[in-house]
Amino acid sequence: MDAGGSFRAWAILAGLVISGGTAAAEKSAFFVENAGSVTDGCLDVGTRELQFSCHRIESGVGTVVALRLYKRSWKTDGASFRKMTVYLPANLKAGDQLSLDDGVARVFFSRGSSAFAGKRGCYGRAESGEVEVLSLTRKMIAIRVSAPIPLSSPLGFPKECPGAENVDMVIRAVPAQLAGLGAWEGRPGPTDSPFDEANPTN
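The structure assignment produced for this chain is given below.
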């Protein structure tokens, strides 16, 4: 499966570390409380940061749910990434259905080549759709994201990102601390680059 495959199908494959003849897929899903992400102006960055800037997680008042998918490859420069970051407002409870139309809840998605981070691939923020909170405990949060996400190329190549990424998936995430996150998860340091945000350290 290449970097342009179905997000839902890729997520199913990455439910565990899967080894095959040519690649292995890795997944992490976590949530951070008292956090913010997908903020207004997060796309006001340089071209190479467009696929990553709205995935960055900072201190805030809401809950951020993050899905990070990485597919290794034996091919030179063949590794790829997919990321989804969901910002949810404070005072969540199971059963909440949050519209993405008004910006109270927000979803950002990107995919691309890990070797050519910020140059090849697509990114976009959901402008409509819904996030439903299925369950919420101290040890896990489960949400369903249903949204068409319009895509753009960081270098402005329209043929690279035609149409939208139609997302309809459940994310089950475990808790994480903001201080424990690295560039791959959404907390780059001052010396980290887009390459670090496109590649897990392990």
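Interim note for the steering committee: The longest strand covers residues 58-71. Residues 75 and 116 are 14 Å apart (CA to CA).
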